[in-house]
Design a protein that fits this description.
By secondary structure, the protein is an alpha/beta fold. The protein folds into 3 domains: 201 residues, Alpha-Beta Barrel (TIM Barrel), CATH 3.20.20.80; 77 residues, no CATH class; 43 residues, LysM domain (Membrane-bound Lytic Murein Transglycosylase D, Chain A), CATH 3.10.350.10. It contains 14 helices and 13 strands. An 8-stranded mixed beta barrel has the order 1-2-4-5-6-7-8-11. The protein has a two-stranded antiparallel sheet with strand order 9-10. Strands 12-13 form a two-stranded antiparallel ribbon. α7 packs across α9. It holds the Pfam family Glyco_hydro_25. It comes from [Ruminococcus] torques. Belongs to the glycosyl hydrolase 25 family. Its EC number is 3.2.1.17. This is Autolytic lysozyme.
């Protein structure tokens, strides 16, 4: 196919008009920064705006995620974050893992494992996935033989094409040896595409498209995050999974177990939350503060003002021994905890002793 001219944009381009850019330079596609992890996990402030602009004028669009993973586990978490940000949207171009910055401090083998883990996670969620980095980084920092099944978007600011086999060449940004580096008065990264992604993606039913209808929206299957309910609560309250439909898509079948606890915290009495804190339900310190959110202060005040004491039963404990340790009686502990048989207690259970 004839090469197509496109751009890639993020918050660095500010309030640029995509329609004006298309009219000024005959832009045929745009790849938008959706999110990243190089400053904590975040959503790019201009992603929604640029995506909406592209859709409004019918401009094919892709997305990318600026990575920062140091392990396969972190790469999978970044993929889950990316998927939560782009959930429910359609992309005529691939979604990419942007591999640069501190990620290059990883060894060649580890970085290759990281890239594969991220791309696998997104691919299994129903997306056409690619890798972005510079020509030299593809040569020196990853084992590119292991990355051949993912499409390559290669940066090389030169009048000569990259050595690395590629479907998109980012030929200019701050330095541009082929064309004016500015569009709409702003410096913009510029690209040539050599592959008909839109046809392939729609035909395969990827990136939010239906294979049977070509352009009907479907919900991509999103990998469900691993971890305990407490861990997912904490990550949710840190806004890692977004809100509304994005949160539902990111948490998958685990959405209800997390959302039910959030709703419970909102409606429960202070005393009920205090009892649950003492039982260890919400973790400690910063985790507890984050999960309880706006309820934390009133719960903490009640804890500080109260004199309740709790004890976690250990193997070999007896209720009489616990009662003696805390200066109380077996009957008193049994009544506080609804224990019907004082001779039957279970190691690991937390009981109130005062």
């Amino acid at each position: 196919m004839e090469k197509l001219f496109g751009i890639d944009v993020s918050h660095w381009q500010g309030d640029m008009s995509i329609e004006q850019a298309r009219n000024e330079r005959d832009v045929k596609f745009a790849i938008i920064k959706a999110a990243g992890a190089d400053d904590g996990k975040y959503k790019d402030s201009k992603f929604e705006n640029y995506y909406a602009q592209c859709k409004a004028i019918g401009l094919p669009v892709g997305a990318y995620y600026y990575g920062n993973a140091k392990s396969v586990t972190e790469a999978e978490q970044e993929a889950d974050h990316f998927l939560s940000v782009i959930a429910g949207k359609q992309f005529e171009y691939p979604i990419y893992y942007d591999v640069e910055g501190k990620m290059l401090n990883n060894s060649r083998g580890v970085l290759t494992d990281i890239v594969i883990a991220f791309c696998d996670r997104c691919e299994k969620a129903g997306y056409f996935v690619g890798v972005y980095t510079s020509d030299s980084h593809f040569q020196a920092h990853v084992d590119d033989d292991r990355l051949q099944r993912f499409t390559h978007w290669v940066a090389r600011y030169s009048s000569n094409e990259p050595v690395t086999v590629h479907d998109i060449w980012q030929y200019g940004g701050e330095h541009n040896y082929i064309a004016d580096k500015t569009i709409c008065g702003r410096t913009v990264d510029q690209d040539f595409c050599y592959r008909d992604f839109e046809t392939e993606i729609k035909k395969a039913g990827l990136n939010g498209f239906s294979a049977s209808a070509g352009d009907e929206t479907k919900e991509p299957e999103v990998s469900e995050p691993e971890g305990s309910t407490l861990d997912l609560l904490y990550r949710t309250m840190k806004d890692e999974f977004g809100g509304g439909d994005a949160r539902k898509a990111a948490l998958g079948s685990r959405y209800n177990e997390v959302q039910d606890v959030i709703n419970h915290i909102d409606k429960a009495s202070v005393q009920e939350l205090v009892d649950e804190v003492w039982a260890g339900k919400y973790g400690d310190d910063e985790v507890r503060r984050t999960i309880l959110g706006s309820r934390w202060q009133e719960v903490q005040d009640a804890i500080n003002a109260g004199n309740k004491k709790y004890y976690t039963i250990k193997s070999g404990d007896t209720l009489s021994g616990i009662a003696a340790k805390y200066g109380t009686t077996v009957n008193a502990i049994a009544q506080l905890n609804g224990i019907e048989n004082p001779n039957l207690i279970i190691a690991g259970d937390t009981i109130r002793v005062k």
